[in-house]
Amino acid sequence: SLHDALPIFVVAESPGASVTITAKNVQVYETLSGSAQLFPIQFDYAANQNIYVKIFYELGSATATGFDSLIQSLVASLSWTIGQSVTAALALSALSDYAFARITGAQVSTDNINWYYEVYPNANKLPYIAAASVTVVGV
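The chain above was modelled as a monomer; its predicted structure follows.
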């Protein structure tokens, strides 16, 4: 059974330097044997890997003021799992009910230079799309 998560602190110190305290999460489990022996399991949240997205819309189809910032926030609201590939289709799925512009496509990138229809983040990282990493382009 799972007991309440307890904080544990890791202290890193070097001579003459200030002390840095980093909080980690600990979950405490009982063994399955029924002996009620408890053991802690430490875990950290995965580091984020920023993903860049370009959303293309048909020029002249936008009918709402500020639609580009709304598109940015809708795409940024998507959540991902660790190591999940990010596709243009998944980015577009956030806009399936968006009615103010005719969306024509999307591309994704891990470096904001090379653009693809699918990118693969580091297997140990969580893909993250910030609103500022979403570009809206009229074509």
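The two ends are 55 Å apart (CA to CA).
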